[in-house]
Amino acid sequence: MKILMFSVRDDEEAAIKAWAESNHVQVDTNDLEFHPDTAELARGYDGVVIQQRSAIGDDPSVYQKLADMGLKQLTSRTAGVDTIDIPAAKKAGLTVTNVPAYSPNSVAEMSVAQTMRLIRNLELFDSRLGQQNFQWAGLQAREIRSLTVGIIGAGRIGGTAARLFHGLGAKVIAYDVVRHPELEDVLTYVDTKEDLLKQADVVDLHVDLNETSKGLIDAAALKLMKNDAFIINASRGPVIVTGDLVDALKAGEIAGAALDTVEGEAALFNQNHQGEVLQDTNVAQLMQMPNVMITPHVGFYTNLAVKNMVDISLNDVLAILKGQPTDHAF
After folding, report:
1. Residue 215: CB partners within 8 Å, gap ≥ 6?
2. CA torsion angle for 39, 44, 47, 48 (degrees, to 10)?
3. Residue 145 shares a structural domain with residue 55
4. Are 95 and 137 within one domain?
5. Sheet strands (E) in 64-190
6. Could you say which DSSP state residue 256 is in?
7. Residue 329 lies inside a defined structural domain of this protein
8. Which of 40, 146, 151, 175 is the most buried (most CB within 10 A)?
9. Which candidate, 6, 1, 71, places its Cα nearest to that of 313?
10. Residues 6+ positions from 146 with CB-CB distance below 8 Å
């Protein structure tokens, strides 16, 4: 049995090697994304695992090509699968799986860390100190126990974030189309997104990317937020309309933002643009704002999360090839 993994980073190799040795399976790797022009590399393999930052492509025949090679599945070792045309893959007879919960704590902890930096004005202090200005006047911080944190999307990650924020003493409210009774000891559900935006001092986004969540936070939504409120996005870039966020920050409609993901990030993130003029004018403007933090979609990037992404994805491939069920199929 042979499995090919696309887009493998150096930090994943140890976990891949350990899994391959433990399961007596040959696992080969490359550093290429899976696209119609790289699909041929999968010939001769029994299983394929991918990790995409950009869409596979508009040609649905790539999925049939995998099926014609004898492959039965296409596994993403990430939670997001918007880069895959799932109907086309299923039409070709491929089982598509993902890793929906590689480590809810990794992303939830990122949100908490970003929130703490914002409410303590640490980015603004960094800006002053960079100019050798050690004054602290005007940068009084707020304690998290005095704040209301509003979580949009209280699923695995959002629910974990709720417990962390509650543990720090914050009042936590949440909006989600699905309510989880097991979280009601740490949060209070509100009826609408608008209710949450009006009440929250910190808006923390943890929604999946789908047709209902694209543009979820636009100009109208931002105008509902308090002028001294912050927004945190550790979900997916298109959830926030970036241009509208830039305008809201310039107008002082909100106090700041922490973004681990942005629209169009595939052209920016995990690449070195040092010395270049960024073509994305919205991101370029955000990076000049001292009350904005941008990180290159690294909320997931912890030791435990990386190992889980490798192990769970390969376990799913093995199960499918053996004709066994998996809980992660679409």
Report:
1. 238, 239, 241
2. -20
3. no
4. no
5. 73-76, 95-97, 148-152, 171-175, 188-189
6. E
7. no
8. 151
9. 6
10. none
What are the residues whose beta carbons fall under 8 Å from the beta carbon of 101, sequence distance 6 or more? 79, 156, 157
Residues marked as catalytic: 236, 265, 297
Tokens of 300: 């997931």
Rounded to whole angstroms, the Cα distance separating 317 from 320 reads 5
Q: Which residues pair with 203 in a beta bridge?
A: 150, 231
Q: For the chain, what's the residue count? A: 330
Range of the domain at 129: 104-294
Q: Mean pLDDT over residues 25-53, rounded?
A: 96
Query: Percent of the chain scored above 70 by pLDDT?
Result: 100
Please state, in angstroms and rounded to a whole number, the distance separating the CA atoms of residues 36 and 296: 26
Interval 307-320: pLDDT, tens: 999 999 999 999 99
Task: Read off the pLDDT of residues 152-164 as tens digits, 9 standing for 90 and up.
Answer: 999 999 999 999 9
Rounded Cα–Cα distance for residues 200 and 172 (Å) = 9
- Both tokens of 241, joined, read 């309309």
